[in-house]
Amino acid sequence: PILYSYFRSSCSWRVRIALALKGISYDLVPVNLLKDGGQQFSAEFKAVNPMQQVPALKIDGITLSQSLAIIHYLEDTRPNPRLLPQDPKKRAQVRMIADHIVSGIQPLQNLSVLKQMGEKKMEWAQNCIASGFQALEQILEHTAGRYSVGDEVSMADLCLVPQVSNAERFRLDMGPYPTITRINKALLELEAFKVSHPSQQPDTPAELRA
Question: CA-CA distance, 29 to 14, in Å (whole number)?
């Protein structure tokens, strides 16, 4: 497999966690979203992903983009360890939380949107994440065990940790979100979340390495 990734991309991080959890080794091709006006806009990368976004994964003779589509494919073809519970209600809760983050929070504060916001980008990002986290905190109060849904790591957790990292980068006060904070802390102790962390990637700038 070949993963096209950017160290700081939360969408790429989700996929890196899934690959690590499932023990899938891969070659990484860095796509720098800032350098050269954005390497994702090159003709070479557009041939890989016409949406000109990371991540993209070449695997089993196909090329997939969109982080959840990639994770669902990995789940379908390499089901151990399981990232979707077998219980239909828990499975729906996992998908709900993942979609809440992937559709309802992250796109509103991603690079392309922030470029449009100019000087207000920090305030905009904080407001978007805070609004989403207020809802997410309430949801997790009902679904969480050790992790987002019960005591097993799921697709929801793969979305949660990168989004908390974004919140911290935009200096959001995490005080109002104790459940999110507790789950995030527990997940960051797991090896798959450590090795996939933005501070540990081949394309991480030296000053941001752990």
Answer: 16
Q: Is 190 left (phi over 0), alpha (psi -120 to 50) or beta?
A: beta
Q: How far apart are CA 75 and CA 78, in angstroms?
A: 5
Pairing of strands 56-59, 62-65: antiparallel
- Alpha-carbon distance 81 to 153, whole Å? 9
Distance CA 193, CA 185 (A): 11
Question: pTM for the complete prediction?
Answer: 0.96
Q: Where are the beta strands (DSSP E) in 86-202?
A: none
pLDDT at residue 26 tops 90: yes
| pLDDT over threshold 90, residue 152 | yes
The predicted structure's pLDDT at residue 36: 92
Give me the sign of the Cα torsion angle 16, 20, 23, 29. Answer: positive
d(CA 24, CA 63): 16
Q: Determine the Cα–Cα distance for residues 161 and 178; give it in Å rounded to an integer.
A: 14
Q: CB-hemisphere CA count at 13 Å for 56?
A: 18
Owner of token pair 């989004």: 163
